[in-house]
Each structure stands twice: as C-alpha cells, then as structure tokens.
Amino acid sequence: MELWGAVVLAELITMIARYPIAFDTSQKYLEEMRKNGEDVPVSATALAVAVTAFSIVLLAVVSAVVVKFVWDGRNWARQVLGVFGAFLVVQLFFAVIALFITSDSDGGATVPAWAMVFEIIGGVAAIGVLVALMHRDTAVYCRDVAAWRTRNRQNGRDRQNGGAR
C-alpha cells in the first residue's frame, strides 16, 4: 500500500502542474457566461483553484478510503484499487505516446514538461501496485483476513473483547 502512496503523490503533483489548463478552461467557461449575459460570480483564478483543490481532495480521500479497505482485507477494495491502477497504466501508455506526437494546443495552456516526469513515475508505480494487488498472495491475505473477521464476530459482537463493540 506504500507504493499506492507514491502513485497518489505523483498524481497530486501532476494535478498541480495541470493548473494552467484548469485556469484556461475556467477563463473560457466564464467568458462564455459573460457572452450569454449571465452573472459571473467568481474569477477564473478562483474557479481554477477551487477545481484543482477539489480534485486533489477527492483523489486523496477516495484513495485513502479504498486503501484502508484493502488493508482491512476487503477483496472488493483490492479489485477497485486494481482497476484504478489499470486506468493509470493506460493513462501512462497514452501519455508516453503523446510525448512523441506533436500537437497544436491552439494557443491554450499545456502541461509543463517537468510534470510528465511525475506522470511517468506514478504510472510505473501503478504497474507495481497492479502486479502486487493481483498476486495470489494478496488474494490469500484478503481471504485470511475475511476468515478472521468472521471467526471473531458473532451477531455484531467482537468475542475477543468480551462482547464489547
């Protein structure tokens, strides 16, 4: 699960590096609102910061919850984290291909080149997470912890602690 921490850290750094894209998108969205005669309640900077901060918090919270359930031996969480890892591996594949394809951003913001380093590190770590999670020993760990939970609980009570919850 420590390797997933490296994945999350790399993705958080990449999200921060994508701030110029969020700002550019926010500017375009707010400009469209102005053209339609709507009130614009916030600036493009505030909207971009809010979207970036929300994305960072969402990634951190969802990852922490799923990792906690994997740590507790929940097989469904292992599979969900495996899907997250597979998604990041596919994202890495397309990001590496994009390095070799020149595209015109139409004057818009692009991700800085240094951010690609963290995207690659996160993708490679995701490969490691995917291999570890889908290994037979991890499935055995989840099965053993589930059996332990079943043996130590009866009618919602923990037998080892004298029936206390």
UniProtKB/TrEMBL annotation:
Highest taxon above the source species: Bacteria
InterPro entries: MFS_trans_sf
Keyword terms of this UniProt record: Membrane, Transmembrane, Transmembrane helix
TM regions (residue ranges): 46-71, 80-101, 113-133
Presence of keyword Transmembrane: yes
Name of the protein in question: Transmembrane protein
Annotated source species: Gordonia spumicola
